[in-house]
TrEMBL record:
The keyword Transferase is annotated on this UniProt entry: yes
Protein's name in the database: catechol O-methyltransferase
The family this protein is said to belong to: Belongs to the class I-like SAM-binding methyltransferase superfamily. Cation-dependent O-methyltransferase family.
Molecular function via GO: catechol O-methyltransferase activity
Annotated EC: 2.1.1.6
Source species, domain of life: Eukaryota
TM segment ranges: none
InterPro entries with a match to the protein in the record: SAM-dependent_MTases_sf, SAM_O-MeTrfase
Single GO BP term: catecholamine metabolic process
Organism: Xenopus tropicalis (Western clawed frog)
A matching Pfam family: Methyltransf_3
Amino acid sequence: MLQVLLAVGMGALALLLFVVWRVRTDGAWALWWHDNYLERLRDFTSGQSRPMRILQFVQSAAAPGDANSAICAVDSYCANVEWAMNVGDKKGQILDAVVLAVRPRWVLELGTYCGYSTMRIARLLPPGARLVTLEMNQHYAQVAKQILGHAGLDTQVDLLVGASSALIPQLKKKFEMETFDLIFIDHWKASYLPDARLLEECGLLAPGTVLLADNVTCPGAPDYLQYVRNSPRYRSEYFPCQLEYLQVEDGMEKSVFLG
Ligand SMILES: C[S@@+](CC[C@H](N)C(=O)[O-])C[C@H]1O[C@@H](n2cnc3c(N)ncnc32)[C@H](O)[C@@H]1O
């Protein structure tokens, strides 16, 4: 009997160690563990959504009107308390560098979530620049509005609620604008390629427009990469980095539209 219990205990420990190892080293396991299992468990125990927990932490930890303080609060919460799908501090530095290099007048973001990358972009924009961000989840958009308000950035950002495929064709008319200088692509990965093609069809790209796509390695957007790396209409460059708040390989792709 003791031998059976010992064998079962050893088996359970081995299984646990295997899961921990896979979660720490494999992107698909890490995303499943943090984005499904742990998030649902916390939602159940707290009676709140993860975006609401992030909002409450920002409101309690970040100085009102201070975007850098709000960004640090989100990073601190997501690195130490619970993971979330923001671009994060490390890839955020690549995003910052691209924003500063492009000095865009018009920026489009696909996928707002809680507004973390929106804050990173908005705080670096030159005077008079506009950032339009699209989010299809009404609850995430409500949270993002409150976080942007707390950070003092809500007047610089136009947050539109809806699916990118429906909103992109309306942008020119809605904002009386011609083309975007910078587009941060960070929504569901299967939409990267169709939306890049839609942006082309809608005439929203000009020679020199920069497309920066997150998570092209984890979870990955292979059809998008295949397109921008092989189309003569783009000059594309890969930036290796790690998945937000984890030691898992990821990357960003910067693609300049050539016309
Ligand atoms: C990875 S999160 C964005 C993270 C955010 N850019 C950041 O770094 O803080 C992806 C978001 O895109 C939204 N989304 C996914 N597909 C979309 C679509 N087709 N149109 C608009 N939003 C979409 C999801 O609801 C989710 O909030």
